[in-house]
Each structure stands twice: as structure tokens, then as C-alpha cells.
Here is the input.
Amino acid sequence: MDPTLYAPWQAARILGVSPATLRRMAALVEEVLHPLPRDAGGGRLWPEGVLGLLAEARRRAKAEGIPLREALLQAKEALGAEGAFPPSPPLATQASEEEALALLQALLERLERVEGELAALRAENQALRESLKALEAPRPRRPWWAFWRR
Here is the structure.
């Protein structure tokens, strides 16, 4: 089992590809090997061994001019990938109900505090705007007949 899991942006950097390319590769990896583990938000995590296998498959695909899917299957067979890279279990990130409730309550308190600060800032902004208007000199009004005076 792979102890090292990488976020998608880290895996993309390791492989030297864009995150969009990595997403396309993820679909292929999950089809050929096994589903990738997910984080609490549902995002993919990349085990180190799978990244090594994918790098080898990319090297083979480029060297032999074969599709990446075929190269991935060959790399899997060459390494005996069934035993070498077993499906990683989902991360144990599920919190207990009490911990989740405490987290939600803390977030609610923080939200209320931020909303209070926002209301105070809006009131201060309005007061500053009014004081700015009071400092401006009034514009002189033109008489109604000034239009014809040119």
C-alpha cells in the first residue's frame, strides 16, 4: 500500500503535465488499474506508485509510438501491477458526528462575526461618504436662460 499520496497539482508537476492532462489520464488509470483514492471533498489523490507506473507508461508510449492506454497495460503487466499497486483504501477522513457538529458551530460563529464586521464597515463607509459630500463645495446653479447666452 502506498503511504505517499499527492494532490492533483503536485502529481501534475511531478509528471510534467497540465492538470487538465492529468484529469484525462486519471480516467484512463481508473479504467485500467483501479479507482484512485479520494479526499474528503471528493478530489482524487495520486499514490506514488501509480505515478511511477504512469510515468513509465508515458515513456513507453512516447518511445514505441503506442497509445497511452496500451502502454499502461504493458507497464501493468511488466510490473505485475495487480500485486504491486493494490487499490488504495479511501482515506479515513470521516469525522464523528460530534466533531462535525462542533466544526459547523465554529464556522457559524465565525460567519456571524464576519457578517457583523461587514455591517460595521458598510456603516463606516456610508458615514465617510456623507462627510465627503459635506466637504465638497456646492456647484453653482446656472440660470435657466444661460442656455441661450453663448
The chain has two domains: 5-82, 97-136. Residues 97-136 form one domain.
